[in-house]
């Protein structure tokens, strides 16, 4: 089941914005289909969704190979931003764009909490 971009999903994403340097976020399917987003119009949502779904999948495969452990969150570090993906459940992924000046460790708990809230809305 693919959820429609309900107000509750968007509300969770909007609440996430501004917390600990979160600038934007989106919920995507494991196949890279956008479900709900709180992104600037300058971001190509379709491209971001496909690439970050791939990123999450590769991160999970790498962890299985190295540690035989499931990766929950994958982070890319760039000059000005972090891109963080985290599994909501076995069908959905939360993608978060963070300001590069934030301490990532302080943001992870809030992102995981948002993923748990999104999971409740998607079941």
Helices and strands in order, then pairings?
Blueprint: H1 7-16, E1 22-29, E2 34-38, H2 45-67, E3 73-77, E4 81-87, E5 92-99, H3 104-122
Antiparallel strand pairs: 1-2, 1-5, 3-4, 4-5
Helix pairs in contact: 1-3
Supply database-style keywords.
123 residues, 3 helices
Any overview of this molecule?
By secondary structure, the chain is of the alpha+beta class. The protein is built from three helices and five strands; from the N terminus they run H-E-E-H-E-E-E-H. The chain has helices spanning 7-16, 45-67, 104-122; strands at residues 22-29, 34-38, 73-77, 81-87, 92-99. A five-stranded antiparallel beta sheet has the order 2-1-5-4-3, with helices on both faces. Strand 1 and strand 2 (34-38) form a beta hairpin. The longest helix has 23 residues, at 45-67. The radius of gyration is 13 Å and the shape is globular. The model has no long low-confidence stretch (mean pLDDT 89).
Shape: globular
Task: Please bin the fraction of helical residues.
Answer: 40-55%
| Main beta sheet strand tally, sense and closure | 5 strands, antiparallel
Order of helices and strands: HEEHEEEH
Instruction: Write down the Rg.
Output: 13 Å
| Strand-residue proportion | 25-35%
The class by helix and strand makeup works out as: alpha+beta
Mean of residue pLDDT? 89
Count helical runs. Answer: 3
Strands of the widest sheet, in order across it, are 2-1-5-4-3
C-alpha end-to-end distance:
9 Å
Question: Would you identify the regions where 5 or more consecutive residues have pLDDT less than 50?
Answer: none
**Count of DSSP strands:** 5
């Amino acid at each position: 089941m693919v959820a429609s971009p309900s107000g509750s999903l968007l509300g969770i994403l909007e609440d996430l914005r501004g917390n600990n340097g979160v600038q934007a976020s989106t919920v995507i399917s494991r196949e890279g289909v956008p479900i709900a987003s709180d992104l600037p119009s300058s971001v190509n949502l379709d491209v971001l969704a496909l690439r970050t779904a791939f990123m999450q999948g590769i991160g999970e495969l790498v962890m299985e190979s190295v540690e035989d452990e499931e990766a929950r969150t994958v982070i890319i570090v760039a000059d000005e931003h972090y891109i963080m993906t985290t599994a909501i459940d076995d069908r959905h992924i939360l993608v978060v764009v963070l300001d590069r000046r934030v301490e990532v460790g302080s943001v992870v708990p809030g992102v995981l909490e948002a993923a748990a809230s999104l999971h409740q809305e998607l079941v």
